[in-house]
Protein 1
Amino acid sequence: MTSLNLLLWITSGIMFQLAVFLGIEYWRHWIRYRNFPSDKTEVGEILSSHKENISVAAWTGFRTFRVDRRIIEDAAQSTCSFYLVPVDEKVLPVFQPGQFLTFSLNLPASDDGSEQLMRCYSLSDAPCADYYRVTIKRVPAPLGSNYSPGRSSNYFHDHVSIGSLLQVRAPAGHFCIDNSDDPVILICGGIGITPMLSMLNVCLTQRPEHEVWLFYGVRNSSELIMGSHLNSLDSEHSNFHLWVCASRPHPEDVIGRDHKHRGRIDIQLLRALLPLKSYHYYICGPAPMLESIVPALEEWGVPDTQIHYEAFGPSSIKRTASAVKGKIQERETDKEIVVTFSQSEKQFKWKHSDLNLLEFAEANGIIVNSGCRAGGCGTCQTKLLSGELSYRHPPDYDPDVGTCLLCVSIPKTSVTLEL
C-alpha cells in the first residue's frame, strides 16, 4: 500500500466518523423537534403561563393556603414536606431560590384557647405557578434538658394534615442565589438542606450546564432528606457533584453508597476536592457549622462578597475583622451610645462590634420573642421610645410606625426600647 492510498483510507475513516456524528446529532434534533409542542396555541399557552407567573406581584398581609399533600422525606420519619395551594386558586408569584414563607399559626393553649405564633420556613422547591413547598423537621426536646420540643414544627407534624388551612405571608428573605454563571458551592447541615433544594432544583432545571457542588452534612443515613432525589440528580447531571458527609454513621452505613465522606464538612475537605476556581459559596446550617466554615473560607482567601450564609440564628456567626469591617459602616465610633430597656430598667453601652439589637438584648439577659432572626417575620417588633436606628438590610416585614425589628437593627444614637 502506497503512502497515498494510506492517506486516502485515513481521510475516508475520518469523513465516515464525521458523517455518523452529524447523523446522530440530526436525529437528536429531529426528536426534540417532534416532541416540542407543534400547535402554536399550546406553545403560546406555555409562554403565556410563564410570563403570567413572572409578572404576578407578591400579596400583602396573609393569604389562605390549603395543604394539598404531605410527604415524609427521610428514613427516620422526622421530616415532612407540605405542598401548599392557594385557596383563591390564583397564580403564585415567582420567588427567589433560598427565600422563605412566614406562617401565622394558631396553636392550642393550656387554657383550652389558642395562641398565635409566627414562624418562617424555607421554600424547598423551584418556583411553580400553582403550589409552594416547605419541608419541616420535627424538633424534639433536647435529651437531658428542661427545654420543650419545637412548638411550631411539632404542630405541623401532629396537627397540619391534608386539607388544613394556613395563613401565609408572601415569600421573603435575602439569602438567595444569584443568576450569574459562576460555579456554585452549596454547603448545608441537617434541615439546612431546604433552601439548598430550591437553589439546586432551579440551577439544574434552568441551567443544566451550571457547575454545582453540594456538601450535605448529616449524622447518618436515617437523617438524609430526599436522598433518592439527590442521587437521581447526581447521576443525571455531569456538572453536579454530590458529597454526603456522615459525622456519626450507623454501623450498617456503607461509604460510597450511603455517604462519600465520614466526618464533618470542613475546609480541609473543600480544599482537597475543589478545583482552583472562583466559586460562590452558599451555606446554611446550625451555628457551630458556620462558625467553623465561614472564617475558614475567609482565611483561605475567598472574597467576602462570595460567601453567603443563613444560620439557625444568623446573628450568632462571628466574622473576621476584615469581613465585619466590610459589612458594617461605623458611625461616630468615638461617640458613646447607650441602649436603655425601659420595662427592664436596665442600661448598657453599645459596642460597634455588636451585630444587632436582638443579640445585644439577649446577651444582656433581656428576653425577646423572635422567629426568623432575619427581618422577615416581625416577631421581634419592639416600640422605639426615643433615639434613631438603622437597618443592616431592608427588612421584608414592614414594622408598624414607631417600632423596629431588633434582629436587623443597630443604633445610630442612644436609644430607649420598650422592653
Protein 2
Amino acid sequence: MSKAVVSSLYDSDVFKMACRQFDQAADAISLPEHIRDRTKYPRRSLSVSLPIKRDDGSVTVFEGYRVQHNLSTGPAKGGIRFHQDVSIGEVAALSMWMSWKCSLAGLPYGGAKGGVIVDPRLLSESELERLSRRYMQEIAPFIGPHIDVPAPDMGTNEKIMGWMMDTYSNHIGRNEPACVTGKPISLGGSQGRREATGVGVAYLVKAYLADLNLPIQSATVAIQGFGNVGSEAALALAGYGAKIIAISDYTTGIYNPHGIDIKRALAFISSQKVLRDFDGGEPITNEELLTLDCTVLVPGALERVITAEIAPKLRCRILAEAANGPTTFSADRILEQREEIEIIPDVLCNAGGVIVSYFEWLQNLQNCYWDREEVLQKLVVILDRAKSSVDYQKRKFKFSRRLAALTLGIQRVADAKQSRGLFP
C-alpha cells in the first residue's frame, strides 16, 4: 500500500515541530498507521484576501487564514491572531495543538486557529475594525456555534471579538453570541474569560510547586511576554505570594531581584503601551530573562523561543509554558536530560483560556450566565482533572510530562475518528 503524499502547504518550522511531536507521541502509543495521517493533518484550511479602505482613502489587501484541524470531537475551537509574522504553517500548527489541548481537557471541541498577516499597531482603530469585520465576513460560511467558534489570540482582544460577533450576526440575520468567545461582558462574554489563561497558568504553577514541596511564598518568577496571558499570570502569582523578578515585552525586559510591582507595571503599560523606560528595575534582553536564576520561568510570548542553544542555560526549577510551542523539539530533547527542571507543557499549562471559552459558549447557548467565582471554581476542577491524568500517564509509562499530555490528547482524538469510521 502506498504512503499518503503530504501537501507542502503547511511547510514551516513550527508545523514541522508540531508534526515531530505528534510522530513521537504516536510511536509511543503505537497508533495504527491507518489512523495516523487522519489524526495528524488538518481537516481543511481557508485562505482569504481582505481588502480594506484606509483612513487616507487608499486600499490595502491583507491576507488571512483559518485552519480547522479536527471536527470529529465537536465544533472546532481556536483563536484568531493578528501578527506580521503569521503564516498558514504556523496557523496549522496552532490548530493541531488546540486539538490536543481540547481533548486533554475533555472539552467537546476539535482544534482550529486563524490569523491575519498584519501588525495591528500600525492600524488606526477604524482600520482595525474594518479589517476585523472583513475577515469575519470572508470566513462566515465556514464558522458558527456548531461548526467553528473563534476566540481572541495575540494581537486581538474582546473589542475585536465584539466586532466579529456583530458581523456574523448581521450575516445570518439574528443575534448569535455563541459564534465567538472572548467577547465583552455586555455582548455575552463570560466573567473570568479575560484572565482565564493567566490564572490557569498560575494555578498549575502553584500546584506543581506544592508537589515539589516548594513554598510559593519563597518562589521567584521570570515571565517573558507581558501581554494578556503574562500579565494575568504575574498578577495571580503575586497574589499567591510569589516574587516576580522579571517581565518583558517586545521592546525590553525588566529585572528586579527584590520584586517588581506588577500593578505599577500594568499602569505604566496602560499609559505608555510598552515596557520600555519603565523604572521598576534594570533593563535586560529577552534572552537574558530566559536564563535568569529563578524558581519558575514562564515563556508567555511567541513559539520557539527556547532553542537548543538556550535549553542548557536555563536556571529554573519549573518551566511553565504559557505560550504555545515555546520550546523547540531539539531543546525538548535536551531538557528531558535535565531532571532538575519540571516542565508544565503548553497543552496543559495554558488550557485555562479555552476551558473558560467553553464555559462562555455554554452560557451563550443556554442564555444562562454564571458569576466569576463559579467560573473559576469550574475552571479549577477541569485543570485538576487534566493535571491528574497527565501525571498518572507520566508515571505509568515513564513518559516525559509533555509526552504524557500529548499521548492522552492524541489518543482521544484518534479514538473518536476510529469510532466514527471513514465516510465513503
